[in-house]
Design a protein that fits this description.
It contains 16 helices and 16 strands. It has a six-stranded mixed beta sheet with strand order 6-11-10-7-8-9. A three-stranded antiparallel beta sheet has the order 3-13-16. A three-stranded mixed beta sheet has the order 4-12-5, with helices on one face.
Length: 505
């Protein structure tokens, strides 16, 4: 026979849930004021006095010192949203916070957490199904991609050059195929309008050698050209004669390896090496007109390989051929850069960002990353929705119609989910200085009258047609935001106790 929980057990369970909910809501409230084109910035200062000024939700939550487990779960869902959709982290977190807040009111009405979880899950599934079938739009039109980029940029540092930056983002993704293949490099100085797309790879590393300023060949080596260092605990006993022989053979082997590079590039070039290169080898290669770039990031090595069509050799002995490619060395802000691939037909693209200060460029780069990501999402899936929270209100209205047909306590949970969805456009309006309730009511009324593309007018107040604006965002971004917010909310609501773990043995 199963006994009902006593008052002490019930109180303990309720206390844990309340603590988790409040911690999660606190995290959500931290980023809530940054949502929308009129969102405010946060200044984040670490213990060393380093400052970050941003309104990017993902960055704020990544830098935020969150200690409560419930708050950490909210921060984690933001990281998931960013990883999958590049943007929409603030919307996801704000929605999760509102769902949790609404669940408290359902508790007061006597609903069990499991009933709420089932209702929220059913509501999220209905919402995204309606989103896909009745709200999402499909287009191969390039202008739609540009407007998606503009929406992602609006309200950020990039907005001062909205048209130019949006065009750059679309061109970069078109060239590279996806956001992950677009590298972003920042050069302090100039203005945002001076940013441009370089069709090739830019290597921002200090070089071993000065050499010439232009080169025409390169090799890629996925290893190092230096003697291996013995572990500290290894002891080798050698007499003086044996030691000299040991040193000589090691140097000779390295020079023999270096000769393979020279043989492949007899008239000079650049050797990109994954690991370290000894000074002796560098000097030898320099005498033969070859520049060495050592300790190359793996991502840059792969990009150079894709661009040139040349395989990365494991050792110099494995080099099959050198790539014929334009390589230009330029000094920017005290650092030498290599511009590789100008004029070569490839999918590699590098966005070169210009800005007044390094702090400005950091925020610009974050904005570019978001814009590149959302363009890539729409380009791959071909689906987008009206932005500004329009899709959230339409999903909410659909859920209310469905809930009325279900009845019972599940109806209350679904209606609660619907109410929570409207927090996104309400917050956008509120952050712009307008009445959130009036905005939501105006959107509902207009949509019922057939104007289904309404959203907050952040400039004048009230609502306007965001299809004509136009304000677009990826379908997948909204879909994932709804599902992620629902999942993290249910995960938190199912926790009825917080206990200390045994330390790892």
């Amino acid at each position: 026979m199963v006994k009902n929980m006593n008052k002490k057990e019930a109180g303990k369970s309720e206390k844990a849930q309340v603590h988790n909910i409040r911690a999660a809501k606190t995290v959500a409230e931290t980023v809530k004021s940054t949502l929308g084109p009129m969102g405010m910035d946060k200044m984040m200062v670490d213990g060393h006095g380093n400052v970050i000024v941003t309104n990017d939700g993902a960055t704020i939550l990544r830098e935020l010192d969150v200690s409560h487990p419930g708050g950490k779960m909210i921060a984690e869902v933001a990281r998931t949203q960013e990883a999958l959709c590049y943007d929409g982290t603030t919307s996801t977190v704000v929605l999760a916070g509102q769902l949790l807040g609404n669940s408290e009111m359902l508790f007061e009405k006597g609903l069990h957490p499991n009933v709420i979880c089932r209702g929220y899950h059913e509501a999220s599934q209905m919402a995204v199904k309606f989103l896909e079938n009745d709200v999402a739009m499909t287009s191969d039109d390039r202008s739609a991609l540009i407007n998606v980029a503009k929406t992602a940029i609006t309200g950020k540092t990039l907005e001062s050059a909205l048209d130019a930056v949006s065009e750059l983002c679309v061109s970069a993704v078109e060239k590279a195929g996806d956001a992950e293949s677009v590298k972003v490099v920042s050069f302090p100085g100039g203005s945002l309008e001076d940013s441009y797309l370089y069709e090739g790879v830019i290597i921002n590393k200090d070089f071993v050698l000065e050499g010439e300023n232009t080169y025409g060949r390169m090799v890629l080596i996925n290893n190092g050209l230096e003697t291996e260092k013995a572990e500290d605990h290894v002891q080798v006993q050698l007499d003086a004669k044996s030691y000299q022989s040991f040193k000589g053979s090691s140097k000779a082997d390295l020079i023999e390896s270096a000769k393979h590079i020279v043989n492949e590039m007899p008239h000079g070039g650049v050797a990109f090496v994954r690991d370290g290169v000894s000074d002796m080898v560098c000097t030898y290669l320099k005498k033969n007109g070859i520049m060495v770039v050592r300790r190359m990031p793996e991502s840059s090595m792969r990009a150079l390989s894709r661009m040139s069509g040349v395989e990365i050799a494991q050792t110099p002995e494995d080099i099959e051929e050198a790539a014929e490619v334009s390589i230009t060395r330029e000094r920017k802000d005290g650092v030498w850069y290599l511009f590789v691939g100008d004029g070569v037909e490839s999918n590699e693209a590098t966005l070169v960002l210009r800005g007044a200060t390094s702090h400005t460029l950091e925020e610009v780069e974050r904005g570019f990353d978001d814009a590149l990501g959302v363009v890539s999402l729409v380009m791959s899936g071909k689906k987008y929705v009206i932005g500004g929270g329009n899709s959230f209100v339409r999903m909410a209205m659909h859920l209310r119609q469905h809930a009325a047909q279900i009845g019972g306590r599940a109806q209350m949970a679904i209606e609660s989910f619907a109410d929570a969805l409207e927090v996104v456009p309400a917050t956008i309006a509120e952050n712009a200085g307008h009445d959130p309730l009036d905005t939501i009511l105006a959107m509902r009324h207009g949509i019922l009258q057939g104007d289904v593309h309404l959203g907050p007018d952040v400039t004048e107040g009230g609502v306007k047609n965001l299809l004509k604006e136009p304000v677009f965002e990826p379908f997948e971004l909204v879909r994932q935001a709804v599902l992620s917010a629902s999942e993290v909310t249910n995960a938190i609501l199912r926790i009825d106790d917080i206990v200390a773990r045994r330390p790892n043995q």
